[in-house]
What does this fold into?
Amino acid sequence: MYLYLRKSEYHSNSSWRPAEERALAKYPTELANFEKEINERSSASVCTYIDYKIGYWRKANAIHKWFVDNCAEGVDNCQDMLVSKDKVARLLDICNLVLEDHSQANEELPTERGFFFGSQEYDDWYFEDLEYTKDLLTKVLDFLNANKDKDYQIVYCASW
It folds into this structure.
């Protein structure tokens, strides 16, 4: 279970400059033919994405369930899930609420059953995962607020 900051980089693909001078995505050598062909066919810009891993959970099934339910319309296919800044703030609020009042756990951030999901107990592990999530999401929001001029997206993904 990972949280990423995805940086989008746009590069000009204008045909008026030689390919060596173009500020394109750095195509690996084995893709050079594709780069040449797309440069010849398109003058549009090229967008590349770089994912920076910033968070990791293991068997934090309540956190996983929240992302699936709120960012993937309940579909869990190990896909990338884009997470809006508002949703990060919402999950942070929920973590804070449950950490302040443990009796809210089952209602606000319920656990999930599943083969790879670990315990469904509201135990020390559960609340440690929430503390970690709270700290992580606070840092993410601070980072995004400090870097508003940059093109970052938040992405969650889990692979079982």
User: Anything to note?
Assistant: The longest strand covers residues 46-56.
